[in-house]
Specification:
Length: 300
């Protein structure tokens, strides 16, 4: 009878010993910083160690603001928390406690602490959240926008919206020459802290041989976030000749023709004046109204 009892005692104490031996103070391992992207969800994860056999009762996530009251943003396992955008939980399989921030804003950036309460004691650890925002695809345009001629001065603009932190814009011509030093980029800060970038590139004498330019938006990390190309809209030289030969000659004929007709009809018009009195505005330009220019007649 003594043997089984002894064995039982041994098993119990072995169990107890093994529990105690792995039962160092529970600790939390958090990343020093987690990266969130504006508008997306982000999950900050902290590992509970030692991993196996620990039961987490509670995980309390707080926001730490210098000079402000520390407030709980989310509490797992108890009531509390500041808003529906913050959720927290405990992942048993990976032994991680987490804080999820839905649709991250720049204002969420900062320091957080996590306090875990387990069946083997509690631990607290700080971590931070960094938020970046991607710029919109850039748009590029020129002033003047059309009918550009050789040796004209043209200003090009490139705009990218809603990024963070402040980025920059680089300019290249169609041969890949870097013109950034000759350009200027301004940033406007939105209410939510994001930046809108507008870059200006003034070319003193453009050439129809090299009408292609591009602007590249560079994010905070020095990497490109988007690119836009523009082909300056030069006036087509053939069209210019045609316009002269067709439109201008036609215009001259029309003007000369209406003048001649007007002069010829002048005596007639003066006799018909009483019938036209309904048309108040037309009285001053009666001569032209009776001419062949149809547009003038519509004002009556
Ligand atoms: C273009 O010039 C800018 C300003 O000098 C520089 O910061 C950038 O690295 C250059 N880009 C390339 C691709 O050479």
């Amino acid at each position: 009878m003594a043997a089984p009892v002894l064995l039982l005692v041994f098993i119990c104490s072995a169990n107890f010993v093994s529990e105690v031996s792995s039962d160092g103070p529970v600790t939390l391992d958090c990343p020093s910083a987690s990266a969130g992207v504006y508008g997306r969800d982000v999950r900050i994860r902290c590992a509970v160690t030692p991993g196996s056999g620990v039961h987490v009762f509670r995980a309390e996530w707080k926001r730490v603001r210098p000079g402000a009251l520390v407030s709980a943003v989310s509490v797992f396992g108890a009531a509390g928390g500041s808003g529906p955008r913050f959720r927290s939980g405990w992942d048993r399989s990976s032994m991680e406690v987490w804080l999820q921030v839905q649709s991250v804003r720049l204002a969420d950036e900062g320091h957080y602490t996590c306090l875990v309460v387990t069946d083997r004691g509690s631990a607290v650890r700080g971590t931070s959240l960094k938020v970046t925002a991607r710029y919109s695809e850039p748009t590029v345009w020129s002033i003047p926008a059309r009918n550009i001629e050789d040796n004209m001065e043209v200003t090009m603009f490139c705009r990218a919206l809603g990024g963070f932190p402040r980025g920059t814009v680089h300019w290249f011509d169609q041969y890949g020459t870097n013109w950034t030093r000759s350009t200027r980029t301004d940033a406007w800060i939105r209410e939510d802290g994001r930046f809108d970038l507008t870059s200006e590139f003034d070319v003193w004498r453009v050439s129809s041989i090299s009408p292609g330019y591009s602007c590249r938006v560079i994010g905070w990390d020095g990497r490109g976030q988007g690119e836009a190309e523009i082909n300056l809209a030069f006036r087509d030289p053939e069209k210019r000749v045609q316009r002269w030969s067709n439109n201008s000659i036609a215009a001259v004929i029309v003007v000369a023709g209406s003048l001649a007709t007007g002069l010829l009809l002048l005596p007639l018009l003066q006799r018909r004046r009483p019938r036209q009195e309904v048309c108040m505005e037309g009285q001053d330009n009666e001569n032209r109204e009776e001419g062949p220019e149809k547009e003038e007649e519509k004002t009556c």
